[in-house]
Amino acid sequence: PAMHTAAPLLALMLWTVGMPSKARCGRAGDTLLTEMERKAADRFRERQKSVPFRLLYSASEGNETPHDLLDTRIGRSSVGKQSTHIARASFQVDAFGSSFILDIELNHDLLSSEYLERHIDHNGKTVEVKGGEHCYYQGHIRGNPDSYVALSTCSGLHGMFYDGNHTYLIEPEENCTSQEEFHLHSVYKSRLFEFPLDYLPSGIFLILLLFLPRVEDETKYVELMIVNDHLMLKKHRLSVGHTNSFAKSVVNMADLIYKEQLNTRIVLVAMETWGTDNKFTISENPLVTLREFMKYRRDFIKEKSDAVHLFSYGDVMIYGFHIAKLETST
User: Fold this and answer.
1) pLDDT tens sequence across 291-324
2) What is the mean pLDDT of residues 14-27?
3) Higher pLDDT, residue 108 or 7
4) Separation between Cα atoms, residue 148 and residue 164, nearest integer Å
5) Where is the Peptidase M12B domain (predicted)?
6) Could you tell me the strand order of the sheet in which 136-141 lies?
7) What region, left, alpha or beta, does residue 143 occupy, with left being phi > 0 and alpha being psi -120 to 50 degrees?
8) Which of 46, 101, 115, 266 could be stapled to 189 by a disulfide with Cβ–Cβ 3.0 to 4.6 Å?
């Protein structure tokens, strides 16, 4: 029979969602979030600013030219229809004394065919939308077969790349007064990922051993649902779109590592964002929060998935709780 069990937070996802948030205009009531962001920023060894370029290939001239327009959308989307993004793209990021050319392809396997986004608005009304904007890419650094890249391009470049020695995070900076610096990005070199990406913490292998036996034999698929709590929404200035985009970007990064190292894919089946308040108390005691989250999943989440993950912006960093549905034989 199927059973529900609590599993540790995936270390990779914990690390990636702990990225410091972009610089932004101050708002009343943001004191707590500002302190959290300061603590999260302390976790990174180096930070540099960079203006990335998209490289456009000219068939007639047989070369690439840099362009400051990073958008990968194809034309303009009609009202009520999600934008479509190009299948392949290349970007140049200059940082830490190196010029990284990131060649990426759209991750067509990230969202399931029945993918659903749901949020509860300020009036308490539940709003559901099938599908979602897909701007999530994976690839490699040009000329470096040992590299990895995972980026989203919905609004600037957000994600990570690994050059065989160091892991870098990239995100757009948000300028409060000038549109001229819209393409200015921050690039971070993380303290926490000094080891190569062919090593993953044992907790991840434990989860895979439990419900993904014989990973090396064939490609496995983990169907995942994400729940963003209200503090996650506040972190993204109460924008459901930005919150969902951030969460999908994090899952895209995790999928890249699972795909390359463990022959396992992560597929998002649904996402829920709490627009008014948390649906249960997020306690400082993780076991209490986990228990409440399990109750919430049992009583209110109807979507079928192998695991449900809660993203919450906690006291020091964003953290999560992972509930996996494990199939065991009798």
Assistant:
1) 888 899 999 999 999 888 888 875 433 444 555 4
2) 45
3) 108
4) 8
5) 220-315
6) 44-50, 185-190, 167-172, 158-162, 148-152, 136-141, 98-106, 88-95, 53-58, 63-67
7) left
8) 46
Using a cut of 0.85, tell me whether the model's pTM lies above it: no
- As a whole number of angstroms, the distance between CA 223 and CA 143 comes to 33
* Chain position carrying tokens 């990779």: 12
Among 24, 50, 84, smallest CA distance to 239 is for 24
User: Which of 304, 144, 160, 295 minimizes the C-alpha distance to 222?
Assistant: 304
pLDDT, one tens digit per residue, over 140-190 is 999 999 899 999 999 899 999 999 888 898 999 865 434 444 589 999 987
Cα separation of 138 and 109, whole Å?
Answer: 11
- Residue 192 predicted with pLDDT over 60: no
In whole angstroms, how large is the CA radius of gyration of the chain? 20
Tokens of 313: 């912006």
Task: Give the residue, 75 or 30, on which the prediction is more confident.
Answer: 75
Q: What distance in Å separates the CA atoms of residue 250 and residue 191, rounded to the nearest whole number? A: 18
Nearest to 83 by CA among 91, 74, 92: 74
Residues 150, 160 contacting (CB under 8 angstroms): yes
Token output for 74: 């194809």
122 φ/ψ angles, rounded to the nearest 5 degrees: -65, -15
Residues 153 and 89 sit within 8 Å (Cβ to Cβ): yes
What are residue 186's DSSP bridge partners?
A: 49, 171
Residue 289, SS3?
A: helix
**Residue 121 confidence (pLDDT):** 81
Contact 129, 117 (CB under 8 A): yes
- Higher-confidence position of 214 and 46: 46
Decide: 292 and 318 in contact? Cβ < 8 Å.
Answer: no
